[in-house]
TrEMBL record:
Pfam families: DnaJ, zf-C2H2_jaz, ZUO1-like_ZHD
Lineage: Eukaryota, Metazoa, Ecdysozoa, Arthropoda, Crustacea
An example Gene Ontology CC term for this record: cytoplasm
Compositionally biased residues, Acidic residues: 289-303, 320-331
Coiled coil: none
Bias (Basic and acidic residues) ranges: 240-253
InterPro entries cross-referenced by the UniProt entry: Chaperone_stress_response, DnaJ_domain, DnaJ_domain_CS, J_dom_sf, Znf_C2H2_jaz, Znf_C2H2_sf, Znf_C2H2_type, ZUO1-like_ZHD
Keyword entries, A-Z: Metal-binding, Zinc, Zinc-finger
Annotated region (Disordered), positions in chain: 237-332
Protein name: DnaJ homolog subfamily C member 21
Domain J: 3-69
Length: 377
């Protein structure tokens, strides 16, 4: 296996720009479409170039590769794994598999076998070997994401080895027995540090390998694409709902605060009036609900009570007015700004002319316009 830096022809301290320039140059040179006379070699070199750039262009993967470069290059020949554990470093490269089918050398077969070996090694040290729990399998190209792929990555991304790493102990058990109790505790402490360090290193290696594999897993890529499509659909649906909501608010704003109905001028004049009458609004808000209710009742009573109760002419007119009011639209007798219902058109018109009503209508209009601007933004 060749070093990724060597494949791209850049130094170990190459910048991101250096990597990108070298990759583009080599990819153009070795692209299979430009090497029809030597397509097999070109395809192989092009894959090496892609794999090298894919690792070195990712800051996290590059940091891991730099830290373990020698071990990765040694691969199965490495001398660091004397405890008969499978060497993971030879699997940190796309050169360890060929294609994404289900044949023996494919991506799925190679990594399925690898993770099965790791699981088997751990089970040797399991204290509950009769447990019904099964370590999730890697699966195949056709495995369902929810049932297989998601479960696999959820388990292995949080991998913790069961191996005790007692072979890393600095002091053996015979030495511990002969030492005084205080010295025994110090020796045991040193041994524990070495074991913990060994377990931590193994956990980091396996988790890093899981990230390496997941990034290249076509099943994960397909699921991410599906999620992106669903997200785009939901975003479009939300946008349409917001547009319908804004349109309804616009219609309500126009119907509730029509300039011709309430005698409003342009918005600039409305803002000016609001500023001038701000003190009145504050004062109105301080009034008690009881006084407000009484005022509304008095306004309506003054409109409905005849001036001369004993006059037959007035009585006749009142009957005529009441009969005509029965045909009025009930919605015209409701004031949405003040949240009041009126019995007659006259009482509603009198209410509309009141200063208190106009202040509330202007305040409502301003609030709704501000909310409309907020939704639009």
């Amino acid at each position: 296996m060749k070093c990724h830096y060597e494949v791209l022809g850049v130094p170990l301290n190459a910048s991101d720009d250096d990597l990108k320039k070298s990759y583009r140059k080599l990819a153009l040179k070795w692209h299979p479409d430009k090497n029809l006379d030597n397509s097999d070699e070109a395809k192989r070199e092009f894959q090496f170039i892609q794999a090298a750039y894919e690792v070195l262009s990712d800051p996290q993967e590059r940091a891991w590769y730099d830290k373990h470069r020698d071990a990765i290059l040694l691969g199965a020949k490495g001398a660091e794994y004397q405890e008969n554990a499978v060497n993971l470093f030879e699997y940190f490269t796309s050169a360890c598999y060929s294609g994404y089918g289900d044949d023996k050398q494919s991506f799925y077969s190679v990594y399925s076998e690898l993770f099965s070996k790791i699981a088997a090694e751990d089970m040797e040290f399991s204290q509950d070997q009769d447990s019904d729990f099964e370590i999730p399998d890697f699966g195949y190209s056709t495995s369902d994401y929810s049932e297989v792929v998601r479960t696999f990555y959820a388990y292995w991304s949080a991998y913790c080895t069961l191996r005790p790493y007692s072979w890393l102990d600095k002091y053996n058990i015979d030495t511990l027995k002969e030492a005084p109790r205080r010295i025994q505790r110090l020796m045991e402490k040193d041994n524990k540090k070495l074991r913990d360090a060994g377990r931590k290193q193994r956990n980091e290696e396996v988790r890093a390998l899981v990230n390496f594999v997941r990034k290249r897993d076509p099943r994960v890529k397909a699921y991410i694409k599906l999620l992106e499509e669903k997200t785009a659909q939901n975003a479009l649906k939300t946008k349409l709902q917001q547009e319908r909501h804004r349109e309804k608010r616009r219609q309500l704003l126009e119907e509730t605060t029509s300039p011709t109905k309430f005698g409003f001028t342009e918005m600039s004049d409305l803002e000016k009036q609001l500023r001038e009458e701000n003190d009145d609004v504050v004062q109105e808000n301080k009034e008690g609900s009881e006084d407000e209710g009484k005022e509304g009742i008095l306004d309506e009573s003054n409109e409905d009570i005849p001036k001369e109760e004993n006059s037959s002419e007035n009585a006749t007119n009142n009957v005529t007015d009441d009969d005509s009011d029965l045909d009025d639209d009930p919605l015209d007798l409701y004031c949405p700004a003040c949240k009041k219902n009126f019995k007659t058109v006259k009482s509603r018109e009198s209410h509309d002319r009141s200063k208190k009503h106009q202040i509330k209508v202007r305040a409502l209009r301003k609030t709704m316009l501000e909310e409309e601007e907020e939704y639009s933004s």
